[in-house]
Amino acid sequence: MTNIVIVFLRDLLPIFILICYATEIPQHFAYSKGKWITMVVIGVLGSVVIWGNVEIFVDWFEGAGMEVVYTLMIMLSYLMFVLAWLASPKNAKALLFTGVALFVCYKLTEFLIFFEVVTQQQVGFLNAGLGVIFGIGICSSFAVLFKFALSQIGQTKYRYFIILCWSMFLAGLLSQISPLLAQVDFVNTGVSVFNLSDYVSDSSEYGHLLNALIGYESSPDATYLAIYSIAFLVSLLVYKFRRGQQHAVISGALSHE
Amino acid sequence: MGSIKPFSTIYSCITLLLLTASSLALAELKVFTLTLENHVFTPQEIQIPANQKVKLVIENKDDLAEEFDSFDLNRERVIFANKKASIYIGPLEPGRYEFFGEFNPHTARGYVVVKEENKDD
């Protein structure tokens, strides 16, 4: 059961966190509840399709099929979220719609594979049921607290901190492609640059929580750090560029008056 | 007819070079095998050389899927029932790196022990 809770933290907590950000960055995620439900439902359907055909995908690219599929979903999802800052409101909605659906699809596929096996085991069903209750409880409790914290920060002059956290969340998402591609030998990674596992290990609850929030890795390699840094900076710079454009438009309008 | 197409020649050369390079890289790569049966990894400890990338082939002989998971190695991969999967690990510093089966973490556990290779070996 503990294992199911951990898997909830790993696979489903990021979806809850995404929803928290979405409701606290309204200029970026200007959606009605109906649209949100549609986005999540499309993501769920996508993950069910991949999960149903997972053994076919696995055999692609000489056994690296799932890693390639996951990498594509992660990269596209990141691109959609970042490019949405630059797009017109109509296009931004389409980009975000796709980004959220891909994100949900990626996270839920991993969870469904795990859940299928657990429920097939002899003593698994009761444990799985209890694990789901605890998992949903922990994720939703955390989401409520996190949303409260974000909304409080959003009312202060430190609102920019939310964008920093959002950029770290996106950087954590994109840097997940590094171990995925390294394990199928598509990229080379070196030895760990540093090791923080004595403070917060990846296997601990805090490790999982920080991983879901900001993509924490206790012993990252240079490739992971490079992808993380670039993804973080690109997300911030794109936001700053968009802010600059908005200020220019406002200043221009005021000077005409 | 019969003329040499420059693009296809260049493409063939590049493909040949890439294939040669990858086969040379594979030739140097050490391969280690793990078997999963009754939700237990055999052997439960494998020794690999330090600072080298190696290939780990995992064969799942069970009728249920298992996920090879390791926080220490930063790897996780599902191995479907009665199938094999490969994972590349390293280069790693000397030490003990734990791995486990995510779906059966109490029984499916093991270690990758990384040791400096003796030059006399």
Task: Provide an overview of this structure.
- The complex is a heterodimer of chains A (257) and B (121).
- Chain A is mostly helical and 257 residues long.
- Chain A is built from ten helices and no strands.
- Chain A has one domain (2-241).
- In chain A, helix 2 crosses helix 5 (89-120).
- In chain A, 76% of the residues lie in helices and 0% in strands.
- Chain A has helices spanning 2-24, 33-52, 54-58, 65-83, 89-120, 124-154, 160-174, 177-182, 205-214, 222-256.
- By secondary structure, chain B is of the alpha+beta class.
- Helix content of chain B is 19%, strand content 44%.
- The mean pLDDT of chain B is 82.
- At the A-B interface, helix 3 and helix 5 of A face strand 6 and strand 7 of B.
Helix content of chain B: 10-25%
Tally of DSSP β-strands of chain A: 0
Shape assignment of chain B: globular
Mean pLDDT of chain B: 82
Q: What integer is the average pLDDT of chain A? A: 86
Structural class of chain B: alpha+beta
User: Per CATH, what is the topology of chain B?
Assistant: Immunoglobulin-like
Total beta strands of chain B: 9
Poorly predicted parts of chain A? none
Number of domains of chain A: 1
- The total domain count of chain B is 1
Strand content of chain B: 35-45%
Shape of chain A: globular
What is the structural class of chain A?
Answer: mainly alpha
The first-to-last residue Cα distance of chain A is 65 Å
Poorly predicted runs of 5 or more residues of chain B: none
> Sheet with the most strands of chain A?
none
Give the strand order, joined by hyphens, for the main sheet of chain B.
3-9-8-5-6
- CATH class label of chain B: Mainly Beta
Number of alpha- plus pi-helical segments of chain A: 10
Corresponding CATH superfamily of chain B: Cupredoxins -  blue copper proteins
